[in-house]
Design a protein that fits this description.
By secondary structure, this protein is of the alpha+beta class. It contains four helices and five strands, in the order βαααββαββ. The longest helix has 19 residues. It catalyses: (8S)-3',8-cyclo-7,8-dihydroguanosine 5'-triphosphate = cyclic pyranopterin phosphate + diphosphate.
């Protein structure tokens, strides 16, 4: 099996996608952050010292999605056509679920972009309330589904 990110001399390379067809590609990723009741209550009531946590996390998730190629060495810079972020309050956890949907019409997929967006959004929540709870747990960052491209559709 040949690894696609190594050339014939076993040196790293970025995959050439110029011969691939442009298709509409969508990826959805999600993850969770679990925290103390005090941290959760501070976020929901918007009583944190650093400002509106969930709104900031959504902006960070969008920025992370857009900057994936700057963070992951072999990712192609992409012209994304849409990014959507949803935050779900999970009172029983307590914590939040963050979901990012990335979309484009292009020659390569957007799974890494959606996963990076989720990771950056959750890390932003952690950063903004770590003064209240340093024991927060970020978990289950995963691809939920993707469509488009040569490898076809995927649904967890």
């Amino acid at each position: 099996m040949n690894l696609t990110h190594l050339d014939k001399n076993q040196r790293p390379k970025m995959v050439d996608v110029s011969d691939k067809n442009q298709t509409t590609r969508v990826a959805v990723a999600s993850g969770y952050i679990e925290m103390s009741q005090d941290a959760y209550d501070a976020i929901v009531s918007e009583k944190t010292k650093k400002g509106p946590v969930l709104q900031t996390a959504v902006i960070a998730a969008i920025m992370g999605t857009k900057k994936t190629s700057e963070l992951i060495p072999m990712c192609h810079p992409l012209n994304l056509s849409g990014i959507n972020c949803d935050v779900e309050e999970l009172t029983a956890l307590p914590g939040f679920k963050l979901q990012v949907t990335a979309k484009l019409t292009g020659q390569t997929g957007v799974e890494m972009e959606a996963l990076t967006g989720v990771s950056i959004g959750l890390l932003t929540i952690y950063d903004m309330v770590k003064a209240i709870d340093k024991g927060m747990i970020i978990r289950d960052v995963q691809l939920e589904k993707k469509s488009g491209g040569k490898s076809g559709d995927f649904k967890r």
